[in-house]
Write a structure and sequence with these properties.
The chain has about 775 residues and is an alpha/beta fold. It is about 50% helix and about 10% strand. It is built from 31 helices and 16 strands. The strands form 4 sheets. A 6-stranded parallel β-sheet has the order 3-2-6-7-1-8, sandwiched between helices. It has a 6-stranded parallel β-sheet with strand order 9-14-13-10-12-11, sandwiched between helices. The protein has a two-stranded parallel ribbon with strand order 4-5. Helix 4 links the parallel strand 2 and strand 3.
Length: about 775
Amino acid sequence: MATDLEQRIAELRASLRPGQQELADWQAGPLAISAVPGAGKSYGMAVAAAITLARQNLNRAQQLVIVTFTRSAAAHLKQQVRKHLRALQLPLGGFTVQTLHGLALNIASRHPQLSGIHLEQVTLITPNRHHRLLRQCVEQWVADYPQIYQELLVRGAFDGEETERLRRQSVLRSDCLPELAAIAIREAKSSGLSPQQLYALAEQVQDEVSVLAIAAGLYERYQRLLQSHQLIDYDDMILAALQVLDNPSARQVWQKQVFAVFEDEAQDSTPLQFRLLDGLASQEASKAAPNLVRVGDPNQAINSTFTPADPIFFRDFCRQSQVQNRLATMTQAGRSSAIIIEAANFMLDWINQSQLAGQEQPFQPQAIQTVANHDPQANANPAHEGRGLEIYTPEDVYQTADLIGQRVCQLLNDYPDANAAILVRENKQGSFLAERLNHPDQTVTPAAHGIDILDVGGGSRQTQVPFEMLTILQFLARPHSPNTLKAALQIFVDRQLIPAQEVHLLASQPETFLYPGPLDPPRSEKVQEARSFCCKLLRSRWELPHYRLISFLALSLKYNPAELATADKLAARLAQQTPGAPSMTTTLPILQELISSERFDPVDVEDIESQYLRPHQLTIITMHKAKGLDWDFVFLPFLHARIIPGELRIPAASQFLGPFSLAEVARAQIRAHVHQQFPLPNMEKAWQRASDLKSAEEFRLLYVAMTRAKRLLWMSAAKQAPYNWNWFDWQRQTKLDKQPPCPVLKPLQAQFLHGQNTSSSPMPSRF
């Protein structure tokens, strides 16, 4: 006769689908779970963790370690595991949920003599300080290798003009070399390569300019600066933890404490991170296979643009697990209606067959399936709204916004408890939509129907206020510095306070730009407008009391109320720390220290993700940030070929270096080494590989965006759209250009929307 606990375990297991049940049935050894979007990976992992704790009856010295990649995901998983333990009437212990870097720091700090990490002596580097260190290592490299620097400076069709030399110098020192340092150092460190190993790797590539050698020089100086300032970065945490686990006695101590490791979002893991988890999960004492469970979806790998993650690593783990008969799949998904699932599956197959990503195959062949009859989880595969899939080709981006506004008002009026989201590729697109949908000239606005609009990207700009204030104050203190002028001009362009233009050229000769003489050539209207704005700010430094300067700057930058509040808070803090007669000399170091040591994020007691999912709300959010979330109705506007898949673009200012980016070449060459693809590609082949990888990831990003929808997926590509959204100012009527749609849109229309008029009809007939 089953005990009460066994009965409760059986009831909890019965709430799972087949793929989730295989995860819950795990008892020992390695296991790979390849899941599809909407399959319930996190829910399955939380239930499996609770059942594992119930069955194993771990002693107090052992724990189940659950690893995920964000603090919010870790907090959610912890809450869910505790909920299921309560249902099983078990103690709420025996497990820990951590981010990977938090786990690594915990290991490293427990053994400072092995890791070299003494928390009382070292500090985790902040993004702002990281940026400054990169600039420092660039300046050191330029001083140490003047000949190579000069060769870079005069590449291409250099006419010898001093103005062009100054422009190129600004581009190299403030953009190209810092970008190369940031990307190459991150790729090399996360791959376990030291500066000396990167130098050795550079010798394997026969290029006119050795990008890897330059990267190795920057990496070497960056490491010295970290050590001299007693700083560590996130990659140092992983490397330090691995140093600890490389020690047999320390490794044995940790392995005795860890019963098993469950990893969520495994498609975003790197080789070093896998080594860390594998080392913890190994059972060396019993010579058994590692107790390592990895759950992920290679088709949702969308972070290699920001991190060294690559889905190839999880794919390899799945293949190895399949050979050992230790691969399970979660292919049933209950999130979306059937037609949305069919569209996502069609898109996946069509893109793989199209070869639009060159030698890269963006997707692993793995179709999403609807759930079986009598699914144990509620509201699976809901009925679609309207056609379920709607695809439009509006005349321009203005009509796109109008169509979305009308459709959202209809949907959320008909279904007041539902929610909707617009997923954009760039924050500038979201800002345009938020402003357009709220504009008083619109005949139909969501606000008039009581529908809230949450522009997630607009809210996040509040965190940039301290950095913008520092940048502009630095410009006011040193207006003739090309670097400070360029940084300030870029903020003014981004904030649409001056017309978009080439800021490198303006910043290369600050005196001529700010105070042109009678013999200087006449300037365009755009340049005159930029100069007028800068001079107005410069006058404010001498005309206003020092304590009012930040408030004036905040108003000049047209901050919204939340940003103004952040600026006031910053000004008050500076006033506290600069008593007496504050000056620019005393203010700037204190402001730099505040930014380096603190984050000025808005405080909100509500769970951040729940804000995005409120009923009767339209959320405007980027496709990247939408991963892991879902809405009843999802709108995907601006799906143009120039954006998805897009192409690796070389800024016009940097093209004298050649038709490629130094940073992307270095990234592709390092990844070729990590993937054991020999010989290493030269510049031209590396650039092509980088381009293929970007296209593959952009298609995966579209797949993620499509699979966020539950009942309606609305897609569009306007005939006329901005060539560059960063330069688009709709209130100044920036020119629109003819833009071809994303290549998968027409096949989707042909497959699913036979004869539908998709040009401008805002409200398609319902079935």
